[in-house]
Specification:
There is one protein chain. This protein has 193 residues and is mainly α. It is 71% helix and 11% strand. A three-stranded antiparallel sheet has the order 1-2-3, with no helix packed on it. Helix 3 packs antiparallel against helix 4. The protein is rod-shaped.
């Protein structure tokens, strides 16, 4: 029974010769050889093809990934821009633009707008309440000031006169504060409308 024998013969550092020997049944020897020098050329061609295909593929993957990541995070950037605009301008009517997409980030933008709507309603209610309180306090305080002023003129007791004069002075201060509050509320409601 014959068996196949492989023999590698290095000729130099760049090339090799591989020889296979087989003894045939009639005692003759069949030897086949081939140079492995073309393996480097084959590998070089493979490398060039690999680089030619993989470089554009990798570049396209990076650019496509950047594009889709930028597009997917647009709602987050819109929320940040709207929040920044509200902080910078104080204009609570700014809202995040939303689309009909049903993504989690679009849902975040819709919920952020709902929070802004509720905050705007609460702030408007507080302004109206402050305006109403200022109006409601102004009339009784003006009446109290008038009574104290009349009492100052009709009282002979110097201690009582001094106390009533202090009441008139403090009433004037509170009336001035209420007027300023009403002016601020009126200016804000005029700028928000």
């Amino acid at each position: 029974m014959s068996h196949l024998v492989w023999l590698r013969i290095p000729k130099d550092e760049e090339s090799d010769l591989t020889v296979a020997s087989l003894r045939l049944p009639d005692d003759s020897v069949l030897e086949v050889g081939r140079s492995t020098r073309n393996g480097g050329a084959l590998l070089q061609a493979f490398r060039l093809n690999f680089l030619a295909v993989m470089t554009p593929t990798l570049l396209l993957g990076v650019l496509g990934g950047a594009f889709f990541a930028h597009r997917a995070t647009k709602p987050v950037r819109d929320v940040v821009a709207t929040a920044r605009a509200i902080i910078d301008t104080g204009d609570f009517s700014a809202r995040v633009p939303v689309t009909t997409d049903r993504t989690d980030l679009e849902d975040l933008a819709r919920q952020f707008n709902r929070v802004l709507d509720k905050n705007q309603t609460l702030i408007q209610g507080m302004r109206e309440a402050l305006d109403n309180v200022a109006h409601d306090l102004r009339t009784p305080l003006a009446r109290l000031r008038g009574v104290a002023e009349v009492a100052v003129q009709g009282t002979a007791d110097s201690t009582a006169r001094e106390a009533l004069a202090d009441c008139v002075e403090e009433s004037d201060r509170v009336l001035t504060m209420l007027t300023v509050l009403m002016d601020i509320t009126e200016a804000e409601s005029g700028s928000c409308d």
